[in-house]
Amino acid sequence: MSKTKPTKKKAAQGKAKPIASKSKKSAAAKKPASKPVPKKKVKSAPAKKSLPKKPVKKASPPKSAPKKKAPASKPVAKKSAVKAALTKAKSPTAKPAPVPAKPTPKPIASAKTTTQTKPVAAPAPVAKVTKAAPAFVTASKTAPAPVSAAVKAPITKKSPAQSLVAAGPTKSGALFYDSHMHTPLCKHAWGEPEEYAQQAVKAGLKGIIFTCHCPMPNGFWPSVRMSESEFDTYVALVQRAANAFKGKLDIRLGIESEYYPGCEEYIASLHQRADFHYVLGAVHWQAKEYLNKFETGTIENFRRAYFENLAKSAESGLYDCLAHPDLVKNYHPDSWCFAIVKNTVTTALDRIAATGVAMELNTSGLNKSYSEMNPGIEMLRMMAERKIPIVVGSDSHRAVRVGEHFVTALNNLTEVGYEKVSYFLNRQRIDLKISDVLASLKKAADHNA
Q1: Assigned domain for 35 exists
Q2: pLDDT tens track for 370-395
Q3: Please, how many CA atoms are within 13 Å of residue 261, restricted to the half-sphere of its CB?
Q4: Helices and strands in the chain: count of H runs, count of E runs
Q5: What is the number of structural domains in the chain?
Q6: Are residues 212 and 257 in contact, defined by beta-carbon separation less than 8 angstroms?
Q7: Based on the domain organization, do 35 and 157 belong to the same domain?
């Protein structure tokens, strides 16, 4: 009781002040009009006595107002929690400018801004931001309610992506984007977004897309992702970097969005909370929840289940692209043999190709226990044969790895039969000739050296 009373008083005091000021303003506004009246007409004086009655009637609502608007105090607490979370996530060496409590993002120039709705049946899709709107405005500050792992939402299949015409290179010759990187909010990445941006400029890139690990319901694998309370902090971090590098590097907001059977409804709601330019779907076999559910038989059956879930993630219609598509080879890497699961992979790729969803060539695989890009050359060739669009991402958890091994990755794509490589803006795919991208990386890197 002692805790709730002060809260109500504070809320009442906080809300009573603006109402009282309004009444004073209204009285003050009418006084100038009433001053000339008594000079000319004495009979109009009684009208002044009736004026205080109006503000007295308006001043009564403060007693009930705190009950209706009590939740307004939550954002204030959230701001302090957000700053605390950000301070905790900072690297010991970096000293970035503090994140403002209410960031006022400015629009960022893009190739095209289109209005598009997602092919998700539930919840109702929200229209994409127009040219006049800020770049990363959150669609709703209300977090989606946690969903039971047993609940599934009806998800429609994603129609094949329509590619946009790419904008030309910058003055330095930069043309391409690194479409996968993280922030300290995921609890296993180091360095501020501005550090990643600086490295991107050195690497000869035109832009970068941050795709930090999304929050999840029911306490799903919390040690490797932002929490619900940090979602707005993430949006603010990316916007801060975008403002700092405006005119030097195009910085966009994306998210690495978990796929786990039963969480589709939550993820669909999450994707409406901000104006994401790119949504990267990911099946992470390392999660304790995933292992408990699918690690029930042999190693090979576990891997087959992974590729089955990869196909299901594409068919959910929730994602633009699928991250590190053969990540499961790091599960008992000493026994990995692609030939054993090739038939399963073939079926999965046929299903993915039918959805129009892109797949990622993730260069960070060279730094993992099975030292090979994700996917490997053989699976990459099968993707090219099915004309599955391909996006390149570094999956950087440290700034130094932005754009790492991109030339090797692009040469691998050419080797297996790809002629174009893609990235996403405004949730729509942009295709570029690989030969043009290779030339641009060298030219821009030399220019910025």
Answers
A1: yes
A2: 999 999 999 999 999 999 999 999 99
A3: 14
A4: 15, 9
A5: 2
A6: no
A7: no
